[in-house]
Amino acid sequence: MKVIRAENLGKCYTLKHQGQGHSGDGLRHAVQDAIAAPFRRLRRSANPTFSLQPPAFEEFWALQNVSFTVNEGEVVGIIGRNGAGKSTLLKVLSRITEPTSGRIGLKGRVASLLEVGTGFHPELTGRENIFLNGAILGMSRAEVTRKFDEIVDFSGVDKFLDTPVKRYSSGMYVRLAFAVAAHLEPEILIVDEVLAVGDAEFQKKCLGKMRDVACGGRTVLFVSHNLGAVEQLCDSGILMSGGRIAFRGPVSQALDAYRSMTSELADSTALLGEADRAGTGRIRIREVAVLGSGGVDGAVTACGMPVSFRFVCENRTGVKIDGVSVGYSVATSSGDILAIQYSDYEGTSFSLPPGRSLITASLSSIPLANGMYAIGARVLVKGHEEDWPKFQVAVLTVDGGTYGGNSAVAHSGRASLILPAEWAISTEAPRTDYPGKV
Predict the structure, then answer these.
(1) Are residues 23 and 131 in the same domain?
(2) Number of H helices, E strands in the chain
(3) CA-to-CA distance for 270 and 341, rounded, in angstroms?
(4) Which residues contact 115 (CB under 8 A, 6 or more apart)?
(5) Lowest-pLDDT range, 70-79, 272-281, 353-362, 422-431?
(6) Domain that holds residue 131
(7) Claim: this prediction has a pTM higher than 0.70
(8) Is there a smaller number of Cβ atoms within 10 Å at the N or the C end of the chain?
(9) Of the given ranges (56-65, 184-193, 234-243, 288-297), which has the lowest mean pLDDT?
(10) Is residue 420 part of a domain?
């Protein structure tokens, strides 16, 4: 049964730009603008191109032609870059803001947790806000009372229950707000990135609670930049880009599509810049290439086949630098790091002359199952940070192949990393005197 239906949703905001004249709002600036206005009109008549200056107001469509349906009991992860329209979509679905165009159909009560303190009155106590939120959701006082102890126990703010919530920390705010939203039995639960405010233990509790909500036949919409949590919790995904839906389908495919979209950060343009990277800057990583089977740049490699990583490092000091270690990381599409490797782990460090040098790391067999993997890079000199781009520098795609002659392993989908091991069997009686045995 469809519980959410969005048809051609659009949301337009009007952006105000500062004029070409004075920027103040006071009387003096108003008088100056009034005096200058006739001269601006004369300039427009004499110079038609003058009228082509940027307008004072501009329309910005945060959502455009967004259409989708969500079934009862479905857990949907909504992902995308900052500014893609995710939060705007949730605000429209939560009736916090009205769409500019299109229609929404919702079946059942909706509980929303979009930002810290949403729906809370700062002057009321935690106890009073629990009953207030229940009333907003259309629940009777008896229904809220029945769930009251569970809400308080889950939130862990029982000592501060009779304190005005304006005195709560952001973490306490989120704890209570999520506990109320999840326990008052809404048919649809909408949660934005606010869980990032809580600690790791509380986030784990929240994910478990949302899973329980979904298992109870209710529907969850979940926005998060924690792709691991999205992959763990959600059945399907919606990838947003530029206010539109770029992909709608199984969550694993949505995450792969998101990783493909962000792979443009791996091009040389990003590596030539200075943004989003740590280190002294004496050495910079300028190019990264992944060489698949056959040593072809950009080729797709296969499970169990060779792969190489090439790093072009630039020494910008004008003198030779000794003790250079280059490293890389391999992460899943959800951002979980699977492996790291540095040249000095293998007892190898480099001396970089001024200018650019090419450094290559070669693997005889890649122990990864099919999928897309994000590659990170880092340069150290005798343990000190020289360059660490805080973005993926390349994408490794593994498709097909075998591991140990078993093609099923590459397609297992149960794990990403396949660790090599030597197996043996012995018919001797097992030892019973292992060190440390109790």
Answers:
(1) no
(2) 10, 20
(3) 23
(4) 192, 194
(5) 422-431
(6) 64-262
(7) no
(8) C
(9) 288-297
(10) no
